[in-house]
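[recover] target loaded
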């Protein structure tokens, strides 16, 4: 198809409703398969009966989602609010050490208030449980999705979903804003680690498994609502710019970026979160604009073509980015098909503005009723009282996490016979990240950005350093954070831990003026390896990162190089593959993790469709290979700036 000029595209859109515009809408919708609705007559009857009892003001309360720092239980009752959330780094009473019982107690206060306002219609509390119940002190944090993608193990992902749901229910919450179903096109994106990978088929398989696990037992108080997010093409933006513009043809939008949603729908996902990003149809260069205002995709594709009967929730003040809207006033997004508006702090103004818009007919009552019908359908599809105790044990699953860590590790370089280290090995551990649960867990860990925490915030966690001391004995393990205090020659091996500092969302974007050379963004990591490499002991390097990175200079100073991603709280899983099992212990099958993203061979290889990476998708060593890779990796000088 010829690339039309922006002028033609603008004309097309200005004449919305013309045959050309309708043809474009049809092309977008018809790129997707037809799915048939599956309705439950008894559920529908219950929904209709409840809908009839609600006033317009109560209906607006159902579509309004404030944040717990901005609303009290009394206000939930006064405004008949139907749903709340806690953002990353928000805890009951602003206390990051709040126990599961304290979370549960606050949830019960909100629930009681909602039930007084709208008897029989429960309140839903949503949270970003994206790698375990990660806001809660003491909860097990699993590897982020980029590591789970490397396991390629759907059954494991499903089990993690179940364990996460149990933890969320233990705290009295109902809804996990997970899984992210992005199929990442440019690893500069700060949310690359929230994705299972760059292969649509793998994202579909693991996304389906995650939803099945999270929503398992929904009707008997064990499962939680899952969220297919962020619809759509959040991982396809130009240059990986968070909340940017995704350029894709209508066909690729469905085939690549839609793959995860088809899997989630197959799993019966009940909620979808809209993406902050925008979409431009790269085939006809038609700018479809912000997803939060895109009626063709929210309603035409998701609700009609794909017969999605659940609810669509906006992202955090996402409606404010729709042209003509503000955070607190956006009939356009609701009319496009948004059912719940996540309006964390400006919710009172939103409530008033939206009620007025309905009364003035700028939001048709039929659209409001459709949104509330969907919300009630979701609420009545689950048992709200939790069948899980509010205990620390209920938010933990250490052995499952340990197994996930083992299966997520990808061995990119290995001197044959080096790993696993013998139990008699005397090991020098270097790199501050070896003793940091914050570095091990990454973003979305107790706090939103994963920063401003210490190991004390993860009492349940085990750092790699602690895990090595447990397996080898403290006397055989020496820790030297910058590697300057000890002579490596006095040890059997050096274990070096390097990596990215924690980040989340756009704060993790690699800027256009930067590139993927890790040692350029973290020069201390190169200095660390220069300090210990070639000094009489082999060096085993682990990289904690939220994305593949260009590491030739670092791998050349390592005898083994492991992509460890963001493994979470169970560092024991790392030591399992680094150190041989003791007599009688299970012998792990070596390194089974395989890349779900290509691994760059150069500092500008941002694209996940790179033709000649160091390792392709599916790459990685088992550790049992008889011979090593021959020559050192090339280390050419970086270009002054990567091509845009
Ligand atoms: C954030 C994220 C979204 C998250 C939401 C609530 O901005 O985009 O993934 O679920 O806000 O914390």
């Amino acid at each position: 198809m010829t690339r039309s000029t922006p002028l033609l595209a603008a004309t097309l859109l200005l004449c919305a409703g013309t045959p050309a515009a309708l043809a474009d809408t049809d092309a977008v919708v018809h790129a997707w398969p037809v799915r048939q609705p599956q309705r439950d007559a008894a559920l529908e009857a219950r929904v209709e009966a409840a809908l009839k009892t609600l006033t317009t003001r109560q209906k607006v309360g159902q579509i309004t989602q404030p944040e717990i720092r901005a609303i009290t239980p009394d206000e939930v009752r006064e405004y008949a609010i139907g749903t709340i959330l806690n953002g990353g780094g928000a805890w009951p009473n602003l206390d990051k050490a709040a126990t599961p019982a304290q979370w549960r107690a606050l949830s019960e206060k909100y629930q009681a208030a909602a039930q007084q306002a709208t008897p029989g219609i429960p309140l839903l509390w949503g949270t970003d449980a994206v790698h375990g119940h990660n806001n809660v002190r003491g909860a097990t944090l699993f590897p982020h999705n980029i590591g789970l993608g490397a396991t390629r193990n759907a059954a494991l992902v499903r089990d993690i979903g179940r364990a996460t749901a149990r933890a969320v229910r233990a705290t009295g919450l109902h809804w996990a804003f997970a899984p992210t179903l992005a199929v990442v096109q440019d690893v500069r994106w700060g949310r690359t680690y929230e994705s299972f990978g760059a292969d649509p088929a793998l994202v579909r398989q693991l996304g389906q498994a995650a939803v099945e696990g999270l929503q398992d037992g929904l009707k008997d108080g064990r499962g939680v609502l899952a969220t297919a997010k962020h619809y759509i093409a959040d991982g396809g933006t130009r240059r990986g710019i968070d909340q940017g513009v995704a350029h894709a043809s209508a066909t690729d939008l469905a085939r690549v970026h839609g793959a995860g949603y088809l899997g989630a729908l197959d799993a019966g996902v009940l909620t979808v979160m809209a993406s902050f990003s925008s979409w431009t149809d790269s085939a006809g260069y038609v700018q479809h604009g912000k997803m939060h205002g895109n009626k063709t995709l929210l309603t035409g594709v998701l609700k009609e073509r794909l017969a999605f009967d659940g609810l669509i929730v906006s992202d955090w003040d996402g409606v404010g980015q729709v042209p003509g809207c503000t955070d607190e006033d956006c009939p356009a997004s609701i009319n496009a098909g948004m059912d719940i508006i996540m309006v964390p702090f400006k919710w009172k103004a939103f409530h008033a503005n939206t009620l007025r818009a309905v009364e003035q007919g700028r939001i048709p009552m039929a659209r409001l009723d459709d949104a509330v019908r969907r919300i009630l359908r979701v609420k009545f599809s689950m048992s709200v009282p939790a069948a899980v105790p509010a205990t620390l044990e209920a938010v933990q699953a250490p052995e499952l996490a340990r197994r996930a860590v083992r299966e997520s590790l990808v061995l990119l370089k290995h001197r044959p016979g080096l790993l696993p280290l013998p139990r008699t090995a005397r090991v020098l551990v270097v790199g501050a990240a070896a003793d940091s649960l914050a570095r091990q867990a990454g973003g979305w860990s107790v706090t939103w950005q994963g920063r401003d925490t210490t190991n004390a915030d993860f009492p349940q966690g085990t750092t790699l350093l602690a895990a090595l001391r447990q397996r080898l004995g403290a006397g055989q393990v020496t820790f030297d954070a910058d590697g300057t205090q000890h002579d490596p020659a006095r040890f059997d091996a050096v274990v070096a831990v390097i990596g990215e500092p924690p980040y989340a969302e756009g704060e993790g974007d690699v800027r256009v003026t930067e590139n993927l050379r890790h040692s350029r963004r973290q020069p201390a990591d190169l200095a660390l390896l220069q300090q210990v490499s070639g000094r009489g002991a082999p060096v085993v390097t682990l990289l904690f990162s939220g994305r593949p990175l260009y590491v030739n200079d670092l791998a050349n100073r390592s005898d083994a190089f492991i992509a460890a991603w963001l493994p979470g709280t169970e560092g024991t899983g790392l030591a399992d593959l680094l150190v041989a099992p003791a007599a009688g212990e299970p012998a792990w099958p070596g390194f089974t993790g395989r890349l779900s993203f290509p691994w760059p061979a150069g500092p500008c290889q941002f694209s996940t469709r790179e033709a000649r990476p160091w390792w392709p998708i599916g790459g990685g060593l088992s550790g049992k290979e008889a011979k090593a890779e021959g020559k050192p990796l090339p280390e050419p000088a970086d270009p002054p700036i990567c091509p845009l």
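[recover] notes: DSSP finds 22 helices and 17 strands in the chain.
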